[in-house]
Amino acid sequence: MENVITPWDVKGDIDYDKLQSKFGVKPIGKVPKELADNILFSRGTIFAQRDFERIISAIENKKPFVMMTGLMPTGKMHLGHMLVAKQMVMYQKLGAKIYICVADIEAYHARQQSLADSKKIAIDDYLTNYAALGLDLDKCDVYFQSERSSDAKKTNSYYRLQNILARHASFKEFEAVYGEISPGKMISALLQAADMLHAQLPEFEGPIPVVVPVGIDQDPHIRLARDLVERTKLFKFVQLSSTYNRFMPGLAGGKMSSSDPTSFIALTDSPADAKKKINKYAFSGGQATVEEHRKLGGNPDVDISFQYLSYFFEDDDEKLNQLSSDYKSGKLLSGEMKSYLIDKLTNFLTEHHAKREKHLAAVTKKFS
Amino acid sequence: MENVITPWDVKGDIDYDKLQSKFGVKPIGKVPKELADNILFSRGTIFAQRDFERIISAIENKKPFVMMTGLMPTGKMHLGHMLVAKQMVMYQKLGAKIYICVADIEAYHARQQSLADSKKIAIDDYLTNYAALGLDLDKCDVYFQSERSSDAKKTNSYYRLQNILARHASFKEFEAVYGEISPGKMISALLQAADMLHAQLPEFEGPIPVVVPVGIDQDPHIRLARDLVERTKLFKFVQLSSTYNRFMPGLAGGKMSSSDPTSFIALTDSPADAKKKINKYAFSGGQATVEEHRKLGGNPDVDISFQYLSYFFEDDDEKLNQLSSDYKSGKLLSGEMKSYLIDKLTNFLTEHHAKREKHLAAVTKKFS
After folding, report:
1. CA B187 to centroid of chain Cα atoms
2. Which CATH number fits domain A269-367: 1.10.240.10, 3.40.50.300, 2.60.40.10, 3.30.365.10?
3. Residues β-bridged to residue B11
4. Pairwise CB contact (< 8 Å): B166 & A148
5. Contacts of B155 in chain A (CB under 8 A)
6. ipTM of this complex
7. CA gap A18, A293 in Å, rounded
8. How does the average pLDDT of chain B come out, rounded?
9. Which part of chain A is CATH 1.10.240.10?
10. Does A191 touch chain B (CB under 8 A)?
């Protein structure tokens, strides 16, 4: 299959080295202990960056910075989405102010979803999950694209930025970045650029380092926003920083996709459903029979259960390495790898659902 | 010269009957006394309309309605701009709420003018002129596109509308309406559609008849906004009404243009400068010599001084008819027609400048 990567589509096998050279991003390099302690960094899930030194410096010198991200409130929040949520929690603990944009205007244009439906999904699912994962929403600036703020000065300045940015981009550029465009996609792209940049307006934080952690497929958005920073001398924006994470693989391989429930574990899936999905759909790196597996061993690099353990569910490097070598040697069977993940996932989901229960009412009250 | 009419360009001689059939607008028809008393209506300066019955009905039944208009704060406010200003004053007296949009975002995209410059020009020139012409700005909703309101609910709903409308228009349509487009022109067009429609949002007046008086060259904007009303069933918008006025001719004929000071009389021109401009530039419908003029007579239909008297400066129909027949018969010379206009204009400008003095500080304070 052709390797297709645009913000709208990810298909085929991903060659991360090629991506780095194609998109011009840099390897993540050495990071300070505060970041290296997080398995997302230490295991290379976050593998590339642009201008990330600025953020490292802010962390090391305890200077203010912003982490900005968005959520598309269509479909269920799944493990793939947890990649960024984990980073929100981490950066908040490191002193960052977290900006979270609910992309309801983008959902309206790209998915024809009503603003009311977007609001409900954002609150019930995503925001409540963030709170349950340990994010203090009271310290974040969470907003809907269709309703920026209850402070008119902020609201005006946010949309003003969207309107002004239009002068500094061309149709050709939108097409080069997005492929086929429509007025809806174009206005969404401009709003998304405003999302990434407006934290630096005087009505918000003023010029400040901002990091936007994304999947590599989202880099065109970052590039456009960065180009706009270069061109609009009106504002004294600090150039955007970004980090890039690998795609969380779907259960059968490929990308985890909201539109295919057999590809993902949702954070609201019951442990029983999660177990069923793992057993039924999770691609295994093992051999066809137990005999062959014992003889030839399995391949943890393509084994989805091992991957999920590596992304999130096995913190302990030693234990993870043991699983890997036992799998390769044939000592650990595919079913055993699945069981190991299912146990971890069951604990996680059970605890997570209890935390959701604890937070749901407050989150609903705060954002309704 | 080819007859070119787009919102960006007006060239050549205008065939108003053809325009009516080409653009599908209807003749203005019979209007009630409240409107017929205004020479803009009685003399056919306002000559066409769409769905204007709704506004007539509101006037006759003393029901609420809105007049919406915009000003482009580039260059000086001149007599051509006074056409709409006179209508603001008239509709306000008839009970309409007047919405006035300062199109500073459009000026940013179409003329590369900074928002700060737009603000200064809007206040010093246009808004102060409106007040001097008798408009009660305290009863109007005057706003800048870059800063809709100090009420966040209103602000959010205005820009939300702009963003939502993008889904319901196509690039083809923007191209058909505007010719060549750019991201800036497109986002301006969407904002202008929001300008025309947002008065009907629940945060503003709710569904209500809205009339937008424009020059016929602006009809593509009206058509686009009306098409959007048909397509976005989300909102219970009453279909827009519009009226169309003839172009105020420039001093040498053609359109009065802000970018050519020899084509217009500004409302801030001194009476002495206005006199000089009339004498030097105003196209005359008279003959080359006094002798020929006495024998053949002049043509008031192309005489700019007579036109200006007809548009604004001679209220008295009988007197105007007398000027016309005396001109045709050769009794009245071109220089005398100019002198007649210059007297009227001198009185108008002198009084107008005194009124500007009276209003300037308050207008500046209100909008700065």
Report:
1. 22
2. 1.10.240.10
3. B4
4. no
5. 152, 155-156, 159
6. 0.91
7. 32
8. 93
9. 269-367
10. yes
